[in-house]
């Protein structure tokens, strides 16, 4: 977490403010030069034009509780995956509250950037095709990524009410994580698609 919190402020904001030393000088310790095994060929990055505002809004895409808290504390926006508004307080409330408690009052309210898949149509075949496309992307995240105890996607869908199905996907080998093994209910909330 220390590294994550250091980089947005020391690196990106440094270059976006056009600091004289640039981003590499701010983000990378001086000892990472050629004398420490680095190539020594890097140089500080600088903008070629001036920013239009002193603070560039930044978003953090994260699911782990510490990084959610970090987003709520330091960033203008947070971008979760599989965001379900009806369950947001239950699933994300504690880390968001922790970060907001430390948030600088000069910052604007934290924006949440939610990715939403949708399809417009009245044909059932079109709707089934759209559901299948969303369904196809889910098994790798829920069942195939991360260590058994540290898959934030798996933890998230369990918190959203799909624990049994998520556990079933988690137990499968990643090479058999086909969309047909993913419950269609993952595409919508348990209330709407159950």
TrEMBL record:
It comes from the Bacteria. Residues 48-171 form the Luciferase-like domain. Gene3D superfamilies: Luciferase-like domain. Signal peptide: none annotated. Pfam families: Bac_luciferase (PF00296). Keywords: Monooxygenase, Oxidoreductase. One of its GO terms (molecular function) is monooxygenase activity. This is Alkanesulfonate monooxygenase SsuD/methylene tetrahydromethanopterin reductase-like flavin-dependent oxidoreductase (Luciferase family).
């Amino acid at each position: 977490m220390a590294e994550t919190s250091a980089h947005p402020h020391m690196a990106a904001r440094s270059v976006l403010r056009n600091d004289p030393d640039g981003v590499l000088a701010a983000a990378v310790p001086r000892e990472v030069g050629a004398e420490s095994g680095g190539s020594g060929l890097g140089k500080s990055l600088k903008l070629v034009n001036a920013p239009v505002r002193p603070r560039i809004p930044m978003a953090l895409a994260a699911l782990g509780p510490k990084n959610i808290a970090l987003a709520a504390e330091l960033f203008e926006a947070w971008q979760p995956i599989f965001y379900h508004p009806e369950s947001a307080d239950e699933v994300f409330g504690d880390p968001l509250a922790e970060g907001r408690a430390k948030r600088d009052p000069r910052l604007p309210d934290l924006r949440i950037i939610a990715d939403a898949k949708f399809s417009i149509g009245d044909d059932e075949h079109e709707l089934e095709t759209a559901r299948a496309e969303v369904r196809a992307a889910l098994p790798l995240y829920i069942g195939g990524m991360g260590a058994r105890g540290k898959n934030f996607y798996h933890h998230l869908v369990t918190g959203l009410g799909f624990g049994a199905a998520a556990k079933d996907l988690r137990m499968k080998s990643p090479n058999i994580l086909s969309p047909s093994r993913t419950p269609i209910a993952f595409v919508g909330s348990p209330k709407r698609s159950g």
